[in-house]
């Protein structure tokens, strides 16, 4: 079921621009311009007001100082960016975001790939298992973080009880700076690996069975098959998943807000949280916009890497 | 030979054990949440933790609903999620129809531009979007939670990709019979595009119902709070009242779990099609 959909999606994705153009020009087609305006107006109004204008305006704001209540913003040049570069807090926030990303993405991908591979084999109760692994993805991050706060409770929490069997003493998960980041990463992986499991499953289903059969004839072992067939064939999926996961990790907010509120001692304060604080607690719209733009640039670079890689792949494949 | 066979069986058993153990760990927080929500406080603060309550205390839920107006939060969340979902189905299918079927100058450029906006992160548009709503006087109203969500580049893209796979012959016949474009969209395209519409609906509903940051920014008064925002504030107020907090959490995840149970196919389709993340 999943595999079919990816194929359809891929086919559709790469075929746009080729289909859809009709050469027949009858009378009805001449009025298309007017109809197009009617059909696109609702979407375009929202799009201009809440996407295009904001993107431009926050760029403008990033060169200004403004608390949103005064009537005019003061032009300050690149002061906001300078201030950011000189701010220890900004660098520590960037570092925290980086640690969270480096902590979650590889772990997330390894778990997701292992589970996807297991579900690709003969396993009883596949449907149940897939539902189970996917369930954390769909629930609200707020509720998830509330549940995990209880699990991380230092005295009565399930996790400290669990690790006590392995001889690990009680850890004050949310009040120790190192442990708190760790706690955030564990929860982050739990919350999101189901997405990547689904994507890996689709990727695995796309590897032709004949490759493995040929390898069997050559007497290849399990590990060898994994190393020489599965991994290389999955490379595009893996790259896609990696970039997407990095993009979303860089934007983590809800989980942080509810689990740790950025603490203790700012050890889990991440970029979006920082933007939120400056914009909506201190009302420093200019500075907050500048930070948001830096995040935007980081995400654009990641996205462009993705697009370039996809393009190369497409040229190679067709 | 026999040895190898037993080895294979035990390997398979081992594989099952490992994967089911992992599934158990994944589900444990859910189970723990539900069981805690039914316990008395005296059974919550015990070490080692005990899984099952001696008596199921369903009145934790009514206590939670008394401690905060969860009923009101619920109404707000469902109302907003349903309105946005319905709105998006309408606006996205109209825009998708234009991109898939209508001939007009600059169509492809506009479509690419539109696709490009899918890559713009929320955080960049967040501040000015808030300002727009502030200038409109819509802060702390339903408008603030609904209107910005009434269009979606992702949804338009998803539906457009589906629409172009629908054969044109069906429509040609309708046009000859004198149907308008809106009629064609409503009576021919939409019924055929049900799977894609369902995927979009499920995704939008989930996204809006689970949304937190936007509600946090644009909502101040208790009456206007959504379930997620209400729960986050509830958490600040009842820091260690785990019975009430877990009852609140169950409340906040239940509708989505129910939708997921009935429409799992569409969730997975949506993920596969987009690689979309929250």
List its salient traits.
heterodimer, A: mainly alpha, MetI-like fold, two-stranded antiparallel ribbon, 14 helices, 2 strands, B: mainly alpha, 2 domains
- Give the helix proportion of chain A (percent range): over 70%
* CATH class group of the largest domain in chain B: Mainly Alpha
Overall tally of structural domains of chain B? 2
What is the N-to-C order of secondary-structure elements of chain A (H for helix, E for strand)?
HHHEEHHHHHHHHHHH
How many helices of chain B? The count is: 14
CATH topology of the largest domain in chain B: MetI-like fold
Q: From the coordinates shown, what is the CATH architecture of chain A?
A: Orthogonal Bundle
Q: How large, in whole angstroms, is the Cα Rg of chain B?
A: 24 Å
Multimeric status of the protein: heterodimer
Distance N to C terminus of chain B: 51 Å
Strand elements of chain B, count = 0
Strand content of chain B: under 5%
Helices and strands of chain A: which structural class?
mainly alpha
Spatial arrangement of strands, main beta sheet of chain A: 1-2
Average pLDDT over all residues of chain A:
87
* Ends distance of chain A: 25 Å
Helical proportion of chain B? over 70%
